[in-house]
């Protein structure tokens, strides 16, 4: 019986963590009616692109696993800006947001 309760608690904990990640990563609360998990993506339009870069550090190790050196190199990519249209499942209002993603 104790094992069953432990397994049930583990499953509920995992489901709770998944739900929290879903709530944190997805823009889901309607600003008009305030309900959670209400926004549905309707359209995504690319507005513009721009070139971006970042510095990455590459480390070098010998056979014993000790760090022998490092170097920095610049990685180039693009940043894409989008206009994302959402609508609320409950009040049917349209919400427009802008997002950007970096692609390296």
Description of the molecule:
- The protein is α+β, with helices and mostly antiparallel strands and 104 residues long.
- It has one domain (2-103).
- The protein is built from 1 helix and 3 strands; from the N terminus they run αβββ.
- The protein is flat, with a radius of gyration of 22 Å.
Summarize this structure briefly:
This protein is α+β, with helices and mostly antiparallel strands and 104 residues long. It has one domain.
Topology:
Blueprint: H1 2-25, E1 39-61, E2 67-88, E3 94-103
Antiparallel strand pairs: 1-2, 2-3
Helix content: 10-25%
Annotation field: number of helices: 1
Tell me the major beta sheet: 3 strands, antiparallel
**Topology order in helix (H) and strand (E) letters:** HEEE
Beta-strand segment tally: 3
If you average the pLDDT, what whole number results? 90
Q: Distance N terminus to C terminus?
A: 51 Å
Which residues sit in consecutive blocks of at least 5 with pLDDT less than 50? none
What Rg, in angstroms, do the CA atoms define?
Answer: 22 Å
Largest sheet strand order? 1-2-3
- What is the general shape? flat
How is the quaternary structure best described?
single chain
Secondary structure class reads alpha+beta
Beta-strand residue percentage: over 45%
Number of domains: 1
């Amino acid at each position: 019986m104790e094992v069953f309760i432990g397994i049930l608690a583990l499953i509920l904990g995992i489901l709770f963590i998944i739900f929290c990640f879903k709530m944190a990563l997805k823009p889901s609360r309607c600003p008009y009616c305030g309900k959670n998990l209400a926004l549905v993506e309707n359209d995504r339009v690319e507005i513009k692109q721009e070139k971006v870069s970042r510095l990455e550090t590459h480390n070098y190790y010998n056979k014993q696993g000790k760090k022998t050196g490092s170097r920095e190199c610049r990685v180039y990519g693009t940043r894409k800006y989008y206009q994302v249209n959402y609508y609320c499942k409950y009040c049917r209002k349209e919400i427009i947001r802008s997002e950007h993603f970096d692609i390296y």
